[in-house]
Design brief:
It is a single chain. The chain is of the alpha+beta class and 323 residues long. A hairpin with a 2-residue loop joins strand 7 and strand 8. The longest helix is centred in the N-terminal third of the chain and has 28 residues. The chain is globular, with a radius of gyration of 25 Å. It starts with a helix and ends with a strand.
Length: 323
Amino acid sequence: LALSAILLLVWNPHYLYDIGFQLSYLAMTGIFLFYQPLSKLFYAKWKWVRTAWEGTMVGIAAQIMTLPLTLFYFHQFPNYFVLTNLGLMIFSFLVLAFGIALFAVAWIPFLPKIIAFLLTFSLTVMLGIIHFVDALPGSVSMAFVLQPWQVLLLFILILSVFGVLKKRSIIGLRITLFLAVIWVVLLVGNRFDRMNKTQICFVNDTNPTFIIQHKQQAFCFYANAETDKKVKYVSQAFQKMFDGKMHYFEISQQQEMNLKFDKNHISINKQENGYDIRLNGKKYFYALRDGYYQPKSTVVAAPWIEKKSTTYSLAKGAVSFAY
């Protein structure tokens, strides 16, 4: 595993910053470290149960080592990954087998069509399983935002647990688990705070786009119906970091909009130079040009329009205010 990583990095050192490269090698490292100890926790005399158990442990072992980067990059965790893994075990094997067979028998008349049909069917079922599990209630937990030091600490804790279990050190295990509990409490506390924020977020877009979040609900206002897909892409990035149900409102054709929810009031008025936004009496002004001054309000201009920025990173491509 180390040799293959070294050869790839010699070929292209930039692979080190590739998310796919990082997750692939971490998953294999997790399987090498944790699969055997986990698989020995349970033994079944029925072969099909044993196969299902071993396959599940492979998925869990890989998930253990990829967890820190999954939370760091994607801000979410698939709660039913074990269920998805069970469904994919069979059909991923069939996809691989039929894919190889399709090339092997390509020169034989009619047979490739049969194998191609079976390959298509296997792929369809495999993707159907993924979509089915993804559509289940609570399939994904979001709003996990980790700092680099938290990612490093989690890796240290995971490897520490492996080390103390291998050495069978009870004291070391207690200390490591105590630190792990503290880490989880801090993470869950941060996630709870993010999910219950009340804020207005002005998104980096060439058209006026802003999101108002109040605890578990978020309201996305955008001023160009032709950019629906881009708006939803940006709002989904917002949801990953803060979670909650998103509601969409297209405001380019409306002079005034009033919205009431949970004893809160949002008022949006379209003006010549931008949008006057009032949240429970607090006033913001979304200016459509730089340098515009609006007294007695927080003015948010759009400098990204002139810079023609193409980034949709909420870390640098948005301005948020608590209210």
